[in-house]
Structure prediction request, 714 residues.
Amino acid sequence: MRKIALFCLLSSLIFSQEYNSSFTSTLIDSSKNGYGSLGIYVSPLSYSEDENLWLAVYRQWQGANASSGYIGSAQISHDDLLDGEPWFTEQKLNECYPGGTLCDGNLPTLSTESTGRYPSAAFAGSDRPIALWNEYTDITYGGGAYGGFPVYSSDTDIDAEFSDWVTPFSVNNGCASLPCDPADLWNGSVSINNGFSSPKFTGIYAGWGANPAGKHYLVTSSFYANGYFLMNDPVEVADDLMTVDGITTFWQGENFATTPVHSINNDGVGYFVQTGYHNDSLLTESPQTTGQCVVIKKTTDYGENWTNDEGFMNTGYTFLTDQAKQRLSDSLFTLWQEEGNEYVYHYGDTIQFADDTLSNGEQINNYVTPGMWFAGYNFGMVTDHNGGLHILLHNLLFICEDANGGCDDADGDGEADSTFLWFGENSGSGIYHLYSPDPTEGVDNWVATLVHDLSFEYTADWYNGEIFASHDGVDDWYYTMWELVPRIEVSSEEGSQVMWYALSAVSEYEYAVDLGVGAQDSTEVVTDLDIFVAKSVDNGMTWTEPEQITETSGPQGARTPEVHVHLSNESTDDFVGVYYNIPDYPYQSTTGDPQWADYKQWIYAGVYSNDFGSEGTVSLDDQSSTPTKFSLGKNYPNPFNPLTNIDYEISKDAEITLDLYDIRGTHIKNLINEKKSAGSHKFLLDANQLSSGVYFYTMVANGITRTEKLVLMK
Prediction:
């Protein structure tokens, strides 16, 4: 029996986080509400390194009595943005529909005005700004119940100050005759990939309200020239009512899964990810997954084809199994006993709390489960340059109480029938980064890292604050998962391992008793949100501590929660674009019980710069000494089993030490401790005697320290 005083989950370990960072943002424009940048599908900010140009696309304010669906754009040079100069905005990109015969005031919408939705920004090639969005039409035009009609436009004047957006083109060839077939393409995950021989469009849309219902459609382009894409006909790529045997549905039913979100790298390798609840009757199949699951399909040809006959029950899907979750939990959790000795948690181990007893005084045992690994409907994903998949998920810790049958497994599904959420001040619940070099090759190659601990966010009182989040005051942890959407992007530089993370999270709170919502209540009430950003230089294996980059004084100077954050879909190793909204309280622009998206929004965008991991960023034992220049390479292969190579190079003869540490920072062994001559060297690490897990190797030469991370998978 192990009596535990403290439970802690170790997040990504970085031996030195010395870096310089800065954030510059400016007000772009305003929007009638926040729904244009809500959710996981839109990507409103893009960057062209060749043109040194930023592009934002958004739903634009056109007055209190005007439609909320006018699409606007804004552009600015990178240098002007850093100098705090204003953006150049363009009004009403969607005044007319494709062909130019139907225009504002005579459109097939309820108000006859433009009703754009879900805007995204991209560049075709390096020099053609592209805006993509949906129009919310009546059923005579888009068909279906909601009239979803996807379109795009391009700017022919490649200049921040002057724009010339063309009349929109249709994405759906099925709209050549009306109503569209397939009807009602809506809520799409769209991208333009520039690694193909010419720019390549890929879009996956929900067939909302279509007949039959629950289908998702893929649209790709076959040709591109001067801002125009020749689109292929839509094809079905996913179905909420798909069956695995002609009878049994894969999902629980319609709307139990998200529309696929996709990411494709410049080599054409990519994935789409869905989350949802699958049919409980499939739990008897192997491998198992319980709760809300993550399912994945892969492409190797820029989205033209996706895995179809492989994977689980020949559905083409790969997913994160319960066995994989348990292994990931084992790799992350660490318990400390009262005497301070470390103990590595394993699934099913016991935790005791001093005040947790039965009526007879007997101590209750609590068993830690693998956690929820709750995919939710809001997650982040990206494909890296090597074809690896990265996913950001919320994860909560669950404990079953071994009293009155609380840990029994009567239904035989391998999980306790009764569990309860246990957060704790430092419980390790929060945003996790999951990485697989190729999930279609099996479930044993996943690696997990805690990026951002949100234990406070899950337990805080959102309901009694004044930021109007969609919380009910009871299950705040659940609604927090909906509100706080994690973002992840990979640097666009060829072969880079730099990744960026962003989240809108709690930055200020007050005690309930001080706000008059609790007589003697020490509950923390959320009063402000800000943007937090982190950087990884090793493909997501480790991350800098999330850094709060905003504390914006809004135009009203009052409550200014920064929300609806997005990262630019193009970035470099040293900077990334950040887009976010600030609700303009108290101007509520929609009716009903408000949340922050229901208010007029101020739209901001800027650049976050961080030189962590760049050439010359080192940790010095003696900063007055003259360093010996040397480079420490990343081990290869990585992950590995059991042999891996470590390359390093020194500019002159030097005393070298190379040491190996585990993820807790415990020294495992010394690998090198001798004088080495100038030049290139290679060390072969044999990890035959080590267990699977994450390790770090640190080299010191004349006071300079450098560290890299390796992953052993047996």
